[in-house]
Amino acid sequence: MTLSEIIVTEQLERRPRGVARMATRAEPRAVPQDGASLRDILRARCEEALLRCSAQSAGISIFDNDDLDELTWAATVGVLGPFEGRRFPRSDSPCGLCFSYRKTQLLLKPHRYFAWMAQTGVPVNEALVAPLIGQFGAFFGTIWVMSHDDLDIHFNLDDADTLADLSRGLATTIRLNDSGRAAGAGKS
């Protein structure tokens, strides 16, 4: 299995847009209340991605500032929900590919290429991964959706647009949370 066999991003252009899913874009976004934790904010976005993309799993991966080759599934819902909080290699992951290309990527059966994904025991039919890019092009992580055993789920440009919409502001939220944590750590 080669990397070029699993990256199928060009298929997004050829797939028909879905009328039913386009209507959900106009629905109001559920916003966590003031004082909500970063995890609550990220999980709300994941739940929305799961619903709006008709996916079976959704998540947000954040790159670790201390170990540049690690990322953490900071929020994960759906089939892969039990893996929330786990750390994975950035250089050997769909999120790492998104980082390298600096744009949304569509992957077909990525568990056949990435050994750690196969070790989870959860097959992935398709994965759509979008970058979380902050101010001045800083890359904070990714937001993603996946399909598993429902072979009728095929992500399209509507889904890519949804992830781009959901990613807006997330990098800033993550950065501000990190800044607040660092400031709090400096107090005695």
Automatic annotation (TrEMBL):
SUPFAM superfamilies: GAF domain-like. InterPro entries: GAF-like_dom_sf (IPR029016). This is Uncharacterized protein. It comes from Massilia frigida.
